[in-house]
Amino acid sequence: MVAQAVAESVAEPATGAALDVEHVSHAFDIDGAVLPVLEDINLIIEPGEFVALLGPSGCGKSTLLRLVAGLEKPGSGTLREDDNRIRGPHPSRVVVFQDPTLFPWRSVWDNVALGLEAQGILKSQRHRVDQALDLVGLSAFRNAYPHQLSGGMAQRVALARALVNDPKILILDEPLGKLDSLTRITMQAELVSLWQRKGFTTLLVTHDAEEALFLANRVIVLSDRPARVKADILVDRPYPRHRGDPYLADLRKQILGLLGLDATW
């Protein structure tokens, strides 16, 4: 059922990677005290899926993203990309954070080029920077500097910087969280369009149930810390989606109930 939904929603054949999270638990050592953060997380994500993670603030969502990115090693369990164990960072898995973290002294083009520069392939792959800027609609701003950009434009630069690496897994840690509501709605539609055109697997952390339902094939609801999977919800709706869809409204009510917020409905 999930595979069918993905096949219907992705315009191109999926180029993303499969992601398997198997019995992953994790804890932090804070001043000698062990603080459990994740508890026996199991997820299977198919190539080209768009999966959103929802859960209470501080439950461990961003920690799970860091483990998937290879920025940290899990306390126990394994994570695999296309059957290859994740042991550290790799250009095939790219993270976009809430803050664009652009270098103010570098132009838009030079900020996007960072990944290729770090890999030592910029000289032969300059066209990929132009293509990435094209994808996010910023070709006309290639020579601009971060202080000349709006918040939405800066986040587009961050997306282009990720896309220039042709990632198989795009990891989004609340990338729209600091944007105003109108810019956020526009960027949500652009994210869906980019995902459909490129076919990468996407893993998104958000605190917004409506955003998760507008963007994702599946919504994974996590419990309070230490996070466990409470529900894995298929969003069986074609794209483009409409915010007034009663089906999505019912799912939102279900999700808020799982998060203990149904009284706010």
Explain how this protein is built.
The protein is of the alpha/beta class and 265 residues long. It folds into 2 domains: 2-92 and 167-264, Rossmann fold (3-Layer(aba) Sandwich), CATH 3.40.50; 104-165, no CATH class. The chain has helices at 2-9, 61-69, 108-112, 114-119, 126-135, 151-163, 181-198, 209-215, 246-258; strands spanning 19-30, 33-45, 50-54, 76-81, 84-85, 93-96, 169-173, 201-205, 218-222, 229-234. The strands form 2 sheets. A 6-stranded mixed sheet has the order 6-7-8-3-9-10, sandwiched between helices. Strand 7, helix 7 and strand 8 form a beta-alpha-beta unit. Helix 5 (126-135) packs across helix 6 (151-163). Mean pLDDT is 88; it is low at 1-14.
Write the layout of secondary structure elements.
Elements: H1 2-9, E1 19-30, E2 33-45, E3 50-54, H2 61-69, E4 76-81, E5 84-85, E6 93-96, H3 108-112, H4 114-119, H5 126-135, H6 151-163, E7 169-173, H7 181-198, E8 201-205, H8 209-215, E9 218-222, E10 229-234, H9 246-258
Parallel strand pairs: 3-8, 3-9, 6-7, 7-8
Antiparallel strand pairs: 1-2, 1-4, 4-5, 9-10
Could you give the order of the helices and strands? HEEEHEEEHHHHEHEHEEH
Q: Would you tell me the structural class of the helices and strands?
A: alpha/beta
Beta-strand content = 15-25%
Number of domains: 2
Pick out the low-confidence regions: 1-14
Arithmetic mean pLDDT: 88
Main beta sheet: strand number and arrangement? Answer: 6 strands, mixed
Shape: globular
